[in-house]
């Protein structure tokens, strides 16, 4: 198991690299990094998140944007970056089935906590109260909190006015989608990160036949990497086509 994989598992289940007690039964599906995220129009947001992961900068930040703009990637990557620096970091996806408010217990002692899918608990009185209490606790500890949702904090359907107010205290960034040229650059960079080379024909084929949001493109590259490693050859259009078909079958 690679060091990056061990860090990913540590962050996801709520431990630091000192083998402290496990908290969260969640695993990261991959090993996202801040360097892998192509900023495009979101450079300021990425820089702010990187500073938080380093233990400096803003104490609180709220990300929002449509699905596929990379919110989850940035939250997970920030936690991994913090863990690599020896800090204690936790990633909490509220959209995960079976999570209850108790999952936040004692997490205020973490250096960085990233909470995703805030919209998933809107209207749940127990969750909203617990999230408000946690917000106050982690601020009192002087630690950092990243949050993300599909919509801006002032448009979430929250019933607790104090929570709604708290979520508007810090900077907020709406992640904008990448244009086609930036998506092509993301494809090439992600492939190179995996040790693959994409020819212009392969890039063009992907852009014409696959969803163009960053999440879909990075997922395809990860699947293509598995095919390429298994067959010990660089990606070709037939190999890309098979990776796409495999993803369609996996998605039902």
From TrEMBL:
NCBIfam families: DnaA_homol_Hda. It comes from Thiorhodococcus fuscus. It holds the Pfam family Hda_lid. Gene3D superfamilies: 1.10.8.60, P-loop containing nucleotide triphosphate hydrolases (3.40.50.300). Residues 181-244 form the Hda lid domain. This is DnaA regulatory inactivator Hda. It comes from the Bacteria. InterPro entries: Hda (IPR017788), Hda_lid (IPR055199), P-loop_NTPase (IPR027417). Signal peptide: none annotated.
């Amino acid at each position: 198991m690679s060091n990056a994989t061990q860090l990913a598992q540590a962050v996801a289940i709520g431990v630091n690299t000192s083998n402290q007690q496990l908290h969260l039964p969640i695993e990261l599906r991959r090993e996202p990094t801040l360097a892998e995220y192509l900023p495009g129009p979101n450079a300021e947001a990425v820089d702010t998140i990187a500073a938080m992961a380093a233990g400096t900068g803003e104490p609180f930040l709220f990300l929002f944007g449509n699905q596929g703009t990379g919110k989850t990637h940035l939250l997970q990557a920030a936690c991994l970056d913090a863990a690599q620096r020896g800090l204690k970091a936790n990633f909490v996806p509220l959209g995960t089935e079976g999570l209850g408010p108790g999952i936040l217990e004692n997490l205020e002692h973490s250096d960085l906590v990233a909470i995703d899918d805030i919209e998933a608990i809107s209207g749940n009185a127990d969750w909203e109260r617990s999230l408000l209490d946690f917000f106050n606790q982690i601020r009192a500890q002087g630690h950092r909190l990243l949050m993300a949702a599909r919509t801006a904090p002032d448009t979430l359907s929250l019933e607790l006015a104090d929570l709604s107010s708290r979520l508007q205290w810090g900077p907020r960034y709406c992640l904008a989608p990448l244009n086609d040229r930036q998506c092509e650059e993301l494809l090439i960079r992600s492939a190179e990160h995996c040790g693959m080379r994409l020819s212009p024909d392969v890039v063009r084929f992907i852009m014409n036949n696959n969803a163009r949001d960053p999440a879909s493109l990075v997922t395809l590259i990860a699947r293509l990497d598995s095919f390429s490693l298994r067959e010990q050859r660089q990606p070709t259009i037939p190999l890309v086509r098979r990776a796409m078909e495999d993803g369609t079958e996996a998605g039902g």
